Amino acid sequence: MSIDLIGWDIGGAHVKAVALQGDRVHEVMQRACPLWQGLGQLDQALEEMIQAIKPVKHCRHVFTMSGEMVDLFPDRNTGVTSILRTVAAHCDPDYVCVFAGMQGFLPLPVVQTADLPVIASANWLATARFAAALVSEALLIDVGSTSSDLFLIGNRQLWVRGYTDHERLRYDELVYTGVVRTSLMSFARRVIFEGEWVNVMAEHFASTADVYRLTGELQEYTDQVPAADAGEKTREGSIRRLARLVGQDVAMSDPSSWESLAYHFREKQLQRLTDAAMRQLSRGLTDADMPIIGAGAGRFLVKEVAERVRRPYKDFDELVAMDRRDGEFQIADCAPALAVAFLARQVV
């Protein structure tokens, strides 16, 4: 059977795709796409991914996005329009649908200006609607490379208070922290280092990828962007970048001190996610044994959040059957792309 439907999630830093053969997941793919550098980055990513997937001639493509927010565009509507125009250059528009939130899927040729706000950054809602069709109750937390989405599901309905990024930031349903790209200087003004509080330099010297490389939790295939200094992505490189944040060179402290600093930053991020999860749970809308579902490259943190709030943990990978292959992307890494593919399969 040939690939006849591809779900796409176009972010600001990556493009993700999930290819289906009938109702079976055949391929999960992610490519770096620093969209802020220009639409040529998206052109290249789409071209390479379509060539690698090799879909049938009249394959259907379904798109969701969050990349419209990058500072390449003066506003979000312009971003959505520009992304869809680029999509149309690579996929036959007659076989393209766009996820428009609660409106469902719109054929690309009929998308109007009034539709653009509900298309913008709706990828979280695709994941939420897909999960709500499969589980009756859960708190789903998707920790990606850059940001994290949280939403409650109860009685197979979504119990969310926000829709736009602004609204969701207010309600801790969108937390701008991830496990690859987030700048460590955003975590705290000061950190504990070698028994003292030390102020952190407000420079993009290091990112969360450096932290999780040192803790051994980062799957290297998920780290597709350059390091903060464009240097090597090794333990030694990560230590060097962490040292700069506290005004040090690597040789000035023992390796154990740098590892302790990494775990301190880890704790800062984990507490931020735990606070957001507890805010959702404090609404009193769910049972005490409701599971927490983890998705995204940082779902290893979600598992620990579940332990802290004493809830059972379930991996997003368990929702859909797929042969697991070590060292390759799993469906949980690309949840919105998987979601639009399966949601579209129900309506196509």
UniProtKB/TrEMBL annotation:
It comes from the Bacteria. Residues 104-309 form the Hydantoinase A/oxoprolinase domain. It holds the Pfam family Hydantoinase_A. GO terms for molecular function: hydrolase activity. This is S-layer protein. It comes from Candidatus Methylospira mobilis. The lineage of its organism: Bacteria, Pseudomonadati, Pseudomonadota, Gammaproteobacteria, Methylococcales.
